[in-house]
Every structure is written in C-alpha cells, then in structure tokens.
Amino acid sequence: MGVRSGDWAGHDRFHRFGEKSPEQKEPRRSRRSVPQTLPHNADFAFSLYKKLSTHPEAKGKNIFFSPLSISMALSMLALGAKGNTHSQIFSTLGYSTLTPDQVNEGYEHLFHMLGHSQEAMQLEAGSALAVHEGFKPVDKFLKDAQHFYEGEAFTVDYSKPEVAVQEINKYIAKKTKDMITDMVKTLDPQTVMMLINYIYFRGKLEDPFEVSLTHEFDFYVNENTKVTVDMMERTDQFDFYHMEELEKQISRDHFKNWEEKLFVTLFKISAFISLQETLQEMGMVEAFSGAADFSGLSEDNKLMLSKVLHQAVLKVNEEGTEADAALIVELRLLSGWLSEIMVLNRPFLVFILDSSTRSILFMGKVNNPTE
C-alpha cells in the first residue's frame, strides 16, 4: 500500500537558545533544488526496515516507523559529535560521502520543503532540545540545531524525573496532535539533554472510499490465524508491490504503478521501538559507550547516549490517512500497468511519501490490523 502526501487530498517553559530574529535569518534555499541527503535517507530507511523486520521479536508483529524522523534526529545529534563517534553516526545514516555542511544544509532545505499544509493535507515536522537546568551546551551546537533543524529548546529539571517525564510528554503530545501522549515512561536522573523530533501527517483522499462499500472481511494474519476487519473497496490506480518479493530486496528503486480494484482494510496501528541495539548493529557503536565524543555539544562534561526511542501511529479510514511519529535521543553524563482485483487481506507493507521531496515520511508492515 503506497500513499503520497501530494495525492492526499507551545510549551509553557520554552527558552530559545541562539535564535535569530526574522530579519537576521538567512534567506531560504530554492524549493527547486533537491537536498543531497534524500537518496541516502531512502537507503537508510530500507536498511533499517530490514534490520527491524528480521529481528526475532518482530515476527508476526506490526512494524511502523518514520525513517525521516530518525534520520533528522541523528543528524542533529551529529552536530555535537566529533571523531569516530561522528564518523559512525554518518556511516550508519549513509552519509559517508557527504560533508557535514551538505547534510546540515540539506536538512535546512528539507524542513522548508516539508513545512507546507493545504486544504487536503497537513504536514508538520520539527525538532526540540530538552536541556537540564544548569547544563550549558556549546553555543554553536544550539545555534546550528536551531538554524538547520528548527530545534527549539526548553529547560527541564531531570533531577525530578517524574516532573520531567510529564513536561516532555506534554510537549510531544502537543506537537503530535495528541496521537502520542505518553511516550516517555522513565528518565535517568543523570540525563542532561534530550533531543526530540516529530513528524505529523494528515491527508484526505481526493476521491475518498465509499463508506457504504465498507464491509466486514477476513484478514489472514498467517496460515493459522485470521481476524475480522472492516474492508474498504474502490477501483483506481495505486502504487502496489508484491510483499514477498519486495521484502527480499526492498530498496528505493522498487516503486511501480499498478491499476486495480482495491480492497484495503480500515485500521489503526501503533508501534514503539527501542533503537539502541539496532543502531549499534548498523555501526553506531561508540555513541553508546564510554568512548563517545560529544565534545561539540558539551566542553565541560563527558556525555554518552543512553536511549533512542521511537513511536509511530498510523490511522487509515475511508477519508484518508493520519500518521504521527516522535523520536527521542537521551544523552546522559558518563509497476508496469496491470489490471486485476486485489484484496489486501494478508500482511502488507505501507509507505507514506512526500511527493515534493520524495522523502519516505513513514513506512512499515501491517501483520495484524486489529492490534
């Protein structure tokens, strides 16, 4: 199932660090140029999907995440990394052939391109830094985070974990339109900063599904399990992929167009992922160890990553799609044309793309739409 966004018709304690006034801000880049990070982001998205989908705990479970949100947050983190820590972050993201300036300017441009809403579509993305009271990050890091990643900063007292949890969850809930409300459960009292990224998407179909055609249908989770779902129906042109073949060699080169009569389930899914282990398997090892070098973030304190958590929510009905994602990084002290009838009553892949940038906003696999 493929969805293109172009086709689908404040926190009380904010404290800005290093923000320029509107008249001081440099002019935005042209919308016509394409950020150099885009193909690398797509490659990272599919590499991460393969890692997540082949993990033993993922068997039979729904997978849904925002690769762009993860890339944005880790790229902002790289602003404060140096040496091998920086190299591993860039290598994991697929940026080995790019300079830091190319990456940062690419995201500055991308945020501008994504920041658009229309009558049939709403798309918002942003970043934040939740900084411990009394902890002073390097000024250049704060200025670059705000300039390139639209990273607004606010202070939090991590020595009071329960209060800090409430404040951060309140911020995330506000930015995700209350679709993600209690992402953070606990906090380490040694935490000094949390990097936050969020993406919110809501799109209406130009030609919605007919509600009267929605009917109960069997969905086959696997050979031995079936569940009853509400199935929507329509005939149109869609992006469609054979999942078994696609999953084996999934990449950004496998997008094709199909035309068919479509039966797709009405569903809502949510996925929560702890990414520490996966990112280390992909090569980002040093950032989670005592050898981490975040001297570009703090000159006075030795920092390391303790958590990288991601949550994404997807809701699909007859009118369109609503999707949301948030990611937190916790730092602590040391198709050719075919015509056929297609019934999506088996596990399927789902993508939400931004048509103006070709960014993969969200992707995943629905094994059981009732969970």
TrEMBL record:
One of its GO terms (cellular component) is extracellular space. Residues 46-369 form the Serpin domain. Pfam families: Serpin. InterPro entries: Serpin_CS, Serpin_dom, Serpin_fam, Serpin_sf, Serpin_sf_1, Serpin_sf_2. Residues 9-27 have a biased composition (Basic and acidic residues). PROSITE patterns: SERPIN. Residues 1-37 are annotated as: Disordered. Belongs to the serpin family. This is Serpin domain-containing protein. It comes from Astyanax mexicanus.
